[in-house]
Design goal:
Layout lengths: L4 E3 L5 E4 L8 E11 L8 E8 L5 E9 L6 E9 L3 E7 L4 E10 L29
Antiparallel strand pairs: 1-8, 2-7, 3-6, 3-8, 4-5, 4-7
Subunit structure: Interacts with NPM (via N-terminus). Forms a pentamer with NPM at a ratio 4:1 (NPM3/NPM). Two pentamers form a decamer.
GO molecular function, one term: chromatin binding
Pfam families: Nucleoplasmin
């Protein structure tokens, strides 16, 4: 999805997936959906197709754009878990999607705790005081 993808009458869907062998956590965030140059004044519906908690495929409309009344929509970094497909369910576009992809590497769970530190070595934090008005 970076720097973005475009859905058109000839390319109605885009699938973002990661390697199943990858042991990292992936977050995909959709920031903005907007009509691109050459769009007609028609309803352009963009859906996100993913899987729910029961691993069933679901399609959810996330944007309905029309050149004369709503040419763009900010989705405020709507977070999704790959694999996910973006589909132009209605209209001919072009619709541009932008967002970001973050990879969080899982830490090795077999770390050792250092027993040399005693509770006496811990620094005491001062209490939080209310602000004087």
């Amino acid at each position: 999805l970076l720097p973005g993808c475009e859905l058109t009458a000839s390319t109605k869907s885009y699938t973002f997936q990661v390697d199943e062998e990858d042991d990292s956590d992936h977050i995909l965030a959709l920031s903005m959906v907007c009509l691109s140059d050459g769009a007609k004044d028609e309803c352009n519906v963009v859906e996100v197709i993913g899987r729910n908690h029961e691993n069933q495929e679901i399609a959810v409309p996330v944007a309905n754009l029309k050149l004369s009344c709503q040419p763009l929509l900010s989705l405020d970094n709507f977070k999704l878990q790959p694999p996910v497909t973006f589909r132009l369910a209605a209209g001919s576009g072009p619709v541009h999607l932008s967002g970001w992809h973050r990879i969080m590497h899982r830490e090795d769970a077999s770390f050792e705790v250092d027993d040399d530190l005693s509770e006496e070595d811990e620094e005491e934090l001062p209490p939080i005081m209310p602000v004087k008005k």
